[in-house]
Design brief:
By secondary structure, this protein is of the alpha+beta class. The chain has one domain: tt1808, chain A, CATH 3.90.1570.10. Helices cover 21% and strands 26% of the residues. The strands form four sheets. A six-stranded mixed beta sheet has the order 3-6-7-8-9-10, sandwiched between helices. Strands 1-2 form a two-stranded antiparallel sheet. It is globular and about 50 Å long.
Length: 187
């Protein structure tokens, strides 16, 4: 990742930029370029979205956002992060169209699909930022090992061993009744 700005930007200034040529995030006021994900990454995000969205809609629990939708996770200096997939309950954002701009309320669950270029230390840093901002659970999917890791405490330490195969992925507090074998996210 390389930085492309020297002046610290606010989330609002970042949102108004129209000259960015690829995926970016705003991290502590600095624009950081991100690698374009591989098609397998998109395939996993699509499957994940389908599974979570189907359950959330059926039980009227909330909404699923994709495509790195921006959430303000820190102010002064501002950080705008975009999880690959996010679940946000209707308790946080009532049904109906979302407001324009980045959301200042964080998702209940942030899902990150690792790319081959991701370093584990950077993934853990991002997990920690989401948890510190108030995200209840961060779920990291590793396509290489076909494992799912769920983080739920602010220290960004694993809340359990990696789940794989027929191990059930659940979010009892955020998505009551949801249970899916880990392998299904990678189908």
């Amino acid at each position: 990742m390389t930085t492309t700005a020297t002046k610290l930007l606010t989330a609002e200034e970042y949102a108004s930029l129209d000259h960015l040529s690829g995926p970016t995030e705003l991290i502590r006021g600095v624009i950081v370029e991100l690698n374009q994900p591989y098609p397998r990454h998109g395939e996993i995000c699509a499957e994940l979205t389908f599974l979570i969205q189907s359950h959330a809609k059926k039980h009227r629990l909330g909404r699923v956002l994709i495509n790195d939708s921006g959430f303000i996770t820190e102010r002064d200096p501002d950080t705008v992060r975009g999880p690959d997939v996010a679940f946000i309950s209707f308790q946080k954002t009532p049904p109906g169209p979302l407001p324009e701009g980045y959301l200042e309320v964080v998702p209940d669950i942030a899902f990150e699909v690792m790319s081959p270029s991701d370093r584990w230390s950077e993934v853990l840093k991002k997990v920690g930022e989401f948890l510190a901002a108030g995200v209840a659970a961060v779920c990291v999917l590793n396509p290489e090992t076909e494992t799912v890791q769920i983080f739920q405490d602010k220290s960004a330490q694993e809340s359990g061993h990696p789940l794989s195969g027929d191990d059930l992925v659940t979010f009892p507090e955020q998505l009551p009744g949801f249970a899916c074998p880990a392998k299904q996210f990678f189908a």
